Amino acid sequence: MKKKIKRVLIANRGEIALRIIRTVKELGLDAVAVYEKPDSEAYFLRFADQAILLGDGPRKDYLSIEKMIWAARKSGADAIHPGYGFLAENPEFSAACDEAGIAFIGPPPGVIRDLGNKVTARNIMKRAGIPFIPGTGNLSAGEDGVREGAAFGNRFGYPLMLKASSGGGGRGIRKVVNEADLQTQLPQARSEAISAFHDDGIYIEKFIESPRHVEVQILADSHGSICHLGTRDCSIQRRHQKLLEIAPAELPPDVLESMHKTAITAAREAGYVNAGTVEFLVDPRTNEFWFMEVNTRLQVEHTVTEMLSGIDIVRQQILVAQGDKLEIPSERINLIGKAVQVRINAEDPKNSFMPEGGKRVEVYQSPGGPGIRLDGIVYQNFKIPTDYDSLLVKLTVRGYEWPQTIQRLKRALNDFLIVGPKTTIPFYLAICDEKDFQAGRFTTDYIETHPEIFNYPEPEREVAKLAKLIAEIHSKRSNPYAM
Q: What is the CATH number of the domain that holds 195?
């Protein structure tokens, strides 16, 4: 049933809350932000039409379904956008919105529930004839589960991957190299699954050596229309967490076409509605691909797809949620060129990516120019949060071919001036100079197989640069860099 949305509550924080607010306001709708006390002075709040305090936090209030529904009712919001993370893939949240008569800007609860359970999702794909990696159902408890896992290992060979049935975001995944390792790690994997997902379901997949991780962005409406917006290569990861995303994936045209069709088939079989991502593992030697999972939400890396396609994915999400039909003719989707996104975090890559929480950004200067997009919350005097993630800004760059895109990425990274915390900028610059990256050769073990990218020289501290410039100006009584 079609119902015009007038006011959207964004059930999230930080960069993604601001990104959603911008589209909400472009549509002429009211934007309602929510926040916890540690976010009382957060940048994204400045752009909302209304802001509602949820509680003391940290994090627990952003995870409270009851408080989100209360805030929506208090503000008069008739729709909720969950962003990513927090409650975005919680079927109970989608159901609670339905029960409260509030439009959930995402898939229906049944779809989130089915696709959120990896075993159920595999069964759906099996029904649709979609190729997936050999695996098991949920393993039995105790020694029976170990025996089932060992039988699978004897049949398909090691290594194997233990995965949480309700997992996501790279959590709940363990590599097993032999049967003794299976006996040790299975109980630990169950414990982690209970802690992270309140579900002890564990299943096994055959481990694919050095695959590529490629995903397809899809959009689906409630009238049966489904379209794709191309692929993204998310192979460069650290501990199953994506660091850098490239669109489109560099694959032969026939493989891309097959992957696009498979993603649409998967979405149709699952009864999918709204924006989502169908993820695949790809053998880089043969280009054979297998279904991995469906992310039932907006992705962090959606910006690279928007840069290439010219489609505002959040806008489409809102229109679909109010019952509109998708009206994106295939000829409008012209994926010309290459785009790449990097996440500029306040972290020290040489120290296991340790967050720089508590430090302040004393000076902030961002890049600009052709083919540059910034999505962030950082500004001068911004304090790096200790209670939340350390993302400062997402940098998305587009060029007409891969070498130009890398050159533009390097230029943009070098144009940043961030004084205060260490960041991931020098790490990305080292990747830009690495030969395999330049040649487009990267798989999910890229970070482990290229340890030299961590040997970048420590950049001259920006404070020291500024101090030298100021001293030179005082000495010469003029700015040597002024035009």
A: 3.30.1490.20
